[in-house]
Amino acid sequence: MNLESIKTIINTVLQNRGKQEVESISESTELRDDVGFDSLDLAELTVRIEAEFDVDVFEDGIVNTVGDILAKLK
Amino acid sequence: MNFIVTGISKGVGLEITKVLISKGHTIFGISRNSSAELDELRKTYPENLKWRSYDLTDHRSIRDELFKSFIGLKTEIHGYVNNAALAYDDIITNLNNDPLEKMFKVNVYSPFNITKNVIRSMLLHQIKGSIVHLSSISVHTGYKGLSMYASTKGALEAFSKNTAREWGSLGIRSNTIVAGFMETEMSSTLSDKQRNRIFERTSLKKPTSLNSVAKTVAYLLEEDSISITGQNIHVDSGTI
Predict the structure, then answer these.
(1) Nearest by CB to A48, which of B124, B166, B169?
(2) What CATH number did the domain enclosing B98 receive?
């Protein structure tokens, strides 16, 4: 799991919503404020990450940043 | 299209399954036990009718047992029919917590958990799907002894309306069918006198037709109802 694969998933969700894709992300990128995700976008992000890595990253707490996702996948 | 239907071994669930199969759909059917009629149907339509025995009192294993193992996460799901239900009827002063909790698990907690997984699947596969809950006229017209059962169905009606609002922007719909009293096993404990009194309260003076309920379910699942969501559709012989 690396930043690039998270970026790909984030951009899939953005594309599905007709939103502007992101060019780069870092561990400190905020999913709501920087990427522009709302709660339904985050739900799709969750299921896409789960489909690939079999981990429900939002199941037991709040995830705000890309770094938070990476931490859950470790 | 692929639909999940619960409680398919008998009564209205079996009728819904027959109607959906006749329209060429594939059913992922769930019930505690099979039945002679269901066995026959499975033999006739091995491709269109997939069945798994599952006890919906276990609302915590739904993801693993039903979505991962039985249906498969890669399978597109276009709709879910929440039909399975227990009817624990008694007057309130006799309330017993064991059957009450069991009923809430089957009628409320499991449907919530199945809906969760259905919507997650629809998100993954970009499906504008349809969810249909079977509710009961007892929610809207009180019947002695049905307060606890009716409250589980009232919970579903509230859940459905809010599902519709929450997921409507993605094209996911949710409706309930408010079924009147049908001649099924669930109402078989009623005496003829009770039965007739119930039917006398309807406009049509008749029990609700299982086939009419099943065809309304099919309508709400399919494209023809594309603009209908967040509604309670009464199929109840006109209980007004």
Answers:
(1) B124
(2) 3.40.50.720
